[in-house]
Write a structure and sequence with these properties.
By secondary structure, the chain is α/β, with parallel strands linked by helices. It has helices at 3-26, 43-58, 77-89, 100-109, 149-160, 176-188, 204-214, 228-232, 234-243, 253-257, 268-283, 305-310, 317-322; strands spanning 31-36, 68-73, 94-98, 115-120, 139-143, 166-171, 195-200, 220-224, 248-250, 262-266, 299-304, 325-327.
């Protein structure tokens, strides 16, 4: 065979192969594994799956028709690790991790199956990716927030509770994001005349004892930083804030809907709708290593006016004008 004939045939084959491969994939229904840091029975877990499912439907991926989805979820770290292994053995085409507690187990379970994560506080600091612009491995997605958000919680606290002097920061010291959020709060607090104390959110008994002791200080208030543990103990934290009449700022709307005072943070469910777009792109051939990790684009300020009234706090017209949602 002449060299130019070989080149012509090889070039023709190269042009045909991607089309044939795509046709082969089109005949097969892709599978999507979902690992969440909350149990399936948790209302927030259901909201996450609903948001992700709606997002995927917009791209034509419908569970049971054009795609097959496997969902696993738990707030227990050991169980999450087992679920990550279980999902990996199902050999899905792609997996979605909801929150920082889910990404680590999935990355330990596989270095080849693509992973899209959402609501992860510090993926670089946690070692999940190489950089935000070029993740470099088999995972990419959406960060939960930027650390400067933590300083804005203090500003909000002084606006709605100007008499506040002592502030308890509820945090998880075992995660990188906990350390990062606390560092920003500690750097901003002195300029606002606030003295910072910390409370570990490890378990119910510890939280209850620490909050009760802190409540003996004058002009007390609290800030609940973002963590999976804070979310697990959310009902207790909201109840303690009400019992001890402590103005409290939260990182997510769910706390305020349950009776908390104020929350300011990204629209968490919007991240799952955006994650669906990355799932679609990867299923169509793009590589997670080359898809940049993105920051939130939508933030929401939510105020519970009923709780403010119970605490004897007045919500200023200026703050109310900035509020995305006022719960009455």
């Amino acid at each position: 065979m002449k060299r130019r004939d070989f080149i012509r045939i090889a070039a023709g084959s190269a042009a045909v192969w991607p089309l044939a491969a795509h046709a082969q994939r089109a005949d097969r229904v892709p599978t999507i594994g979902i690992l969440a840091g909350v149990s399936p029975e948790d209302p927030q877990g259901k909201a996450i799956v609903d948001a992700l499912s709606r997002g995927l439907q917009e791209f034509g991926w419908i569970d049971g028709k054009s795609a097959k989805m496997h969902y696993r979820g738990s707030s227990d770290p050991e169980q999450l690790g087992k679920y990550a292994t279980e999902l990996t053995t199902l050999a899905p085409d792609i997996m979605v991790a909801t929150g920082g507690t889910s990404v680590g187990p999935l990355l330990r379970a596989t270095k080849t199956i693509p992973i899209v994560f959402a609501n992860v506080p510090d993926p670089v600091g946690s070692g999940f990716i190489e950089s935000l612009s070029r993740p470099g491995g088999n995972a990419t997605g959406f960060v939960q927030f930027e650390y400067n958000l933590s300083g804005k919680w203090l500003d909000l606290l002084k606006q709605i509770a100007p008499e506040a002097r002592n502030v308890a920061v509820l945090w998880d010291p075992t995660i990188i994001a906990g350390v990062g959020q606390l560092a920003v709060i500690q750097s901003v607090a002195p300029a606002l005349g606030l003295d910072v104390r910390t409370i570990n959110v490890r378990d119910d008994a510890e939280i209850e004892r620490a909050v009760a002791a802190f409540a003996n200080l004058p002009h007390g208030s609290m800030i609940v930083t973002a963590s999976a543990l804070a979310f697990v103990h959310r009902d207790l934290i909201v109840a303690l804030a009400a019992r001890h009449k402590l103005p409290t700022i939260y990182f997510q709307r769910t706390f305020v809907a349950a009776g908390g005072l104020v929350s300011y943070g990204p629209d968490f469910l919007d991240q799952y709708r955006r994650a669906a777009g990355y799932v679609d792109r990867i299923l169509k051939g793009e590589r997670p290593a080359e898809l940049p990790v993105q920051a939130p684009t939508r933030y929401e300020l939510v105020v519970n006016l009923r709780t403010a009234k119970a605490l004897g706090l007045a919500v200023s017209p200026a703050l109310l004008a900035r509020t995305d949602e006022a719960i009455e």
